[in-house]
Specification:
Helices cover 40% and strands 28% of the residues. By secondary structure, it is α+β, with helices and mostly antiparallel strands. The strands form 2 sheets. It has a 5-stranded mixed sheet with strand order 1-3-2-9-10. Strands 4, 5, 6, 7 and 8 form a 5-stranded antiparallel sheet that branches. The model has no long low-confidence stretch (mean pLDDT 82).
């Protein structure tokens, strides 16, 4: 059944050619436009089918990436990815010794963020620890940092974790992309939603996130990534990592 439609042409020359064709064929303008649309319809149908197929593939890919366990070898499904890699963190990755310290630094900023001199001092200290202890990395965590604008001082209590190795059995513990999160958010909403709420994103998919440190109501979460998805230079970079829990800062 014919259906009336109204449209507006944006080129006078197009209408002129349609009218010329109409006169030559002794057809109405509507009949000519209708025949042109009928000729194009099969092509448009084909294009729409391709668009629909592409969207279906995108949805499937998104679902695959969201199913973190699919990145694990089949034989490791006996326990969850989080349990498996947390065990590796305790038994293989982490050095048994921690270093507790207390230091005060000059602080002239009006904001509470760490100043460059403070960061440089901590990095130099961590590099010395790495060399002395013969470990791969050191993670400095401010567990109680205070700032006095009156006395222009900042610093406090810290705990330094030592890392024997950040790669094991084809998986990379990406400490440089660790994220401090409120523990309540992780418990109430799950790790995925907690990461979204705090705008934590990674450029590549990870197998899972594991907790590596707790302070009061905060937890530091670290992503575990397939080593083949990480650039080779990244595997040996970031020997000194600074995490300011209260300021939500991670510096490498």
């Amino acid at each position: 059944m014919p259906k009336r439609i109204t449209f507006q042409a944006d080129r006078d020359s197009t209408i002129c050619e349609i009218d010329n064709y109409s006169r030559a064929k002794k057809l109405s303008r509507s009949a000519v436009i209708s025949s042109l649309l009928n000729a194009l319809a099969p092509r448009l149908k084909c294009i729409n089918a391709h668009y629909s197929a592409a969207k279906d593939l995108e949805r499937e890919l998104t679902n695959v990436l969201e199913q973190q366990d699919c990145l694990l070898p089949q034989e490791q499904f006996a326990i969850s990815a989080e349990e498996h890699f947390h065990q590796l963190w305790i038994m293989k990755i982490r050095h048994p010794r921690n270093i507790v310290d207390y230091k005060i630094h000059e602080h002239k900023k009006t904001k509470t963020n760490m100043e460059q001199d403070e960061i440089s001092y901590i990095k130099e200290m961590l590099e010395n620890i790495v060399n002395k202890m013969a470990v791969e990395k050191a993670i400095f965590i401010y567990t109680d940092r205070r700032v006095s604008h009156k006395f222009q001082k900042a610093g406090g209590l810290s705990n330094t974790l030592l890392i024997n190795q950040s790669e094991y059995e084809g998986y990379f513990f990406d400490f440089a992309n660790s994220k401090p999160l409120p523990m309540l958010d992780v418990i109430a909403h799950g790790i995925k939603e907690a990461l979204k709420r705090h705008q934590a994103t990674l450029p590549i998919p990870c197998v899972c996130w594991i907790p590596i440190y707790y302070v009061d109501d905060m937890v530091i979460m670290t992503p575990v990534i397939k080593s083949t998805d990480v650039k080779k230079q990244k595997l040996t970079m970031d020997k000194a990592i600074i995490i300011n829990l209260l300021g939500q800062e991670v510096v490498t």
